[in-house]
Amino acid sequence: MTDRPNYITPTGYHAMQARYRHLLGEERPKLVEVISWAAGNGDRSENGDYIYGRKRLREIDRELGWLSKRMKAAKIVDPAHQTERHRVLFGACVTIADEDNAERVLTLVGEDETDTAAGRISWSSPIAHALRGATIGDVRRVDLPGGTKDYEVLTISYPSPQP
């Protein structure tokens, strides 16, 4: 893991906390109970509940450790409080068009909250890196695995601040 901050939106951070609480408070205790029950059934070498339970417990503990590290490194950035709303920065929702006028709507979010199907891309991805700092009307060139593409920024928006 790098020493750079883990930029994340408040929504992404709350989702990460909810996942941590779910694993620690619900899933892990239930699994420990199943493992204890399975261990009491005798031979553990051929006990599927015991073997699977121990494997799943290790997976949960690894994920809890990873989530803990990511939350400690988190730097919450609320896009609703962005002062330069005319530029593409962290948390911006951007509509772009390529050379064929195919439009895409992208939101620049933290690495832990990306969902490309929903249009949420990592702020450190190649396309987000190229778009950072752009204003409406700017054309940015992006080097993608399939070749180089030019994108024009059509709109930029940020969430409204909550009172």
TrEMBL record:
<dbReference type="Pfam" id="PF01272">
    <property type="entry name" value="GreA_GreB"/>
</dbReference>
<dbReference type="InterPro" id="IPR036805">
    <property type="entry name" value="Tscrpt_elong_fac_GreA/B_N_sf"/>
</dbReference>
<dbReference type="InterPro" id="IPR036953">
    <property type="entry name" value="GreA/GreB_C_sf"/>
</dbReference>
<keyword id="KW-0251">Elongation factor</keyword>
<dbReference type="GO" id="GO:0032784">
    <property type="term" value="P:regulation of DNA-templated transcription elongation"/>
</dbReference>
<comment type="similarity">
    <text>Belongs to the GreA/GreB family. GreB subfamily.</text>
</comment>
<dbReference type="InterPro" id="IPR022691">
    <property type="entry name" value="Tscrpt_elong_fac_GreA/B_N"/>
</dbReference>
<protein>
    <recommendedName>
        <fullName>Transcription elongation factor GreB</fullName>
    </recommendedName>
</protein>
<dbReference type="InterPro" id="IPR028624">
    <property type="entry name" value="Tscrpt_elong_fac_GreA/B"/>
</dbReference>
<keyword id="KW-0804">Transcription</keyword>
<keyword id="KW-0648">Protein biosynthesis</keyword>
<comment type="function">
    <text>Necessary for efficient RNA polymerase transcription elongation past template-encoded arresting sites. The arresting sites in DNA have the property of trapping a certain fraction of elongating RNA polymerases that pass through, resulting in locked ternary complexes. Cleavage of the nascent transcript by cleavage factors such as GreA or GreB allows the resumption of elongation from the new 3'terminus. GreB releases sequences of up to 9 nucleotides in length.</text>
</comment>
<keyword id="KW-0805">Transcription regulation</keyword>
<dbReference type="GO" id="GO:0003677">
    <property type="term" value="F:DNA binding"/>
</dbReference>
<feature type="domain" description="Transcription elongation factor GreA/GreB C-terminal">
    <location>
        <begin position="86"/>
        <end position="158"/>
    </location>
</feature>
<dbReference type="Pfam" id="PF03449">
    <property type="entry name" value="GreA_GreB_N"/>
</dbReference>
<dbReference type="InterPro" id="IPR006358">
    <property type="entry name" value="Tscrpt_elong_fac_GreB"/>
</dbReference>
<dbReference type="GO" id="GO:0070063">
    <property type="term" value="F:RNA polymerase binding"/>
</dbReference>
<dbReference type="GO" id="GO:0006354">
    <property type="term" value="P:DNA-templated transcription elongation"/>
</dbReference>
<dbReference type="InterPro" id="IPR023459">
    <property type="entry name" value="Tscrpt_elong_fac_GreA/B_fam"/>
</dbReference>
<feature type="domain" description="Transcription elongation factor GreA/GreB N-terminal">
    <location>
        <begin position="6"/>
        <end position="76"/>
    </location>
</feature>
<dbReference type="InterPro" id="IPR001437">
    <property type="entry name" value="Tscrpt_elong_fac_GreA/B_C"/>
</dbReference>
<keyword id="KW-0238">DNA-binding</keyword>
<dbReference type="GO" id="GO:0003746">
    <property type="term" value="F:translation elongation factor activity"/>
</dbReference>
